[in-house]
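Ectoine utilization protein EutA
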Amino acid sequence: MVAITKLEIPLGFDQRAVRKRIGLIVLATDHTTEADFTRLVASPEVGIYGARIAYANPTTPENLRAAAPRLAQAAALLLPDEELDVICFSCTSASVVIGDDAVAKGIGLGKPGVPVITPPLAVQAGLNAMGVRRISVLTPYTVETSVPMASYFADKGFEIASFSCLGLDDDRLMARLSPQTLVEAAVAAMADDAEALFISCTALRSAALVETVEQRIGRPVITSNQATAWACLAQCGVAAPANAGRLMRLPMAKVA
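Tokens:
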């Protein structure tokens, strides 16, 4: 048997293993958010700590609303007894139908006192930072699931120049939409008189295409994951990458 020696040396400990901590709650079927956050947010000084909640397709308002009671348990699993700088619930359509305040309340039951960011809140903040009021919107959802999204942004004071959807009801298919399809859909969805384009859905791989679409349409583009990445970094006081669209190059302001 190999002899094992316990070293008798002083042990030093840092206050945190990573300086900034972001909690990420995603649907069980999510293929995209973690990859986007790894690319846009994670760094030696920013750690991403994730939890998943049960979710079953099809993507309907009813099924999305069913995620609400699961938020507290998921939040409680994010580094128990440890502090977080912010928690992001990464589902745009669920946040809309549940409500931003209700999402924050549910997460607060499991992880009290932590600022909460949702994609709709982050998108609002991004549009406001750009000084944009008149927008085009593209979603991968059905008309039924898109209607609450249109109402949400209209109620927040934004003018909807055009609203387009792709008619999908399975977020796993949404995640598989090809980059070429997403770019062409974005170009087709952009109204001539809109000031910016919002591409909704954290399942879409659209955050990586922002600069390509911005070049095609000549106006700013905001996507769900890009906006939440920007907002989470702002909450942490960490600079955003400059290669993910115009939003990332704007001064950062706390959302939550």
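Residues 2 and 8 are 19 Å apart (CA to CA).
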